[in-house]
Amino acid sequence: MGLLNRRHSGLSSWLNSVAYWRVAIGLIAISAVVAAFGEAGREALMYDRPAILGGEYWRLLTGHFTHLSNSHLLLNLAGLVLSWLLVGRNYSTAQWLVVLLLSIVSISSGFWFLDENMLWYVGLSGVLHGLMIAGAIQGLSTLPVESAVICALVVSKLVYEQIVGPLPGSESVSGGTVVVNAHLYGAIGGAIAAGLFWHRAGRSTAI
Length: 207
Description:
Rhomboid-like fold, two-stranded antiparallel sheet
């Protein structure tokens, strides 16, 4: 009986570990599928302002899963895995989906209304900043020091990018121009999601 209990406990632990990677695995899978279509997929799915004006509204979503090259894709997926190792346990799958959605909406809205001269965009990096800042804010209640350090690093990076420009070497590694406003807009969306969760949790506690 003890052996069966240990096996069941081990299986449950493994399933829980896999479960918290669901959103990350989904993002990896979607990005890989898009990349498999090569140049044709990129042309059909990237954020393209003239095409969106022509009615191709899906690009507001799919542009975030489209990449310039395999090296650009691998760079973003490595960032996703690192982000998930640091903050992936801080939300449920449903909550992460909300963070993801708000980050995408924030980036696409920022592009559309504030960066009207930007004609096209691809990449997951903006979304990654939203996921990272949302997870770090949530982690302040359980791992305050580590989470505060992550928040400080992300905010410092955003400030540097807004004042100076992309981090040295980032454009050569990604193989194209780094759109720093995507990082800012994504982080804003992630922070809004975290704030909504904190507000909801506070109301539940008060009740």
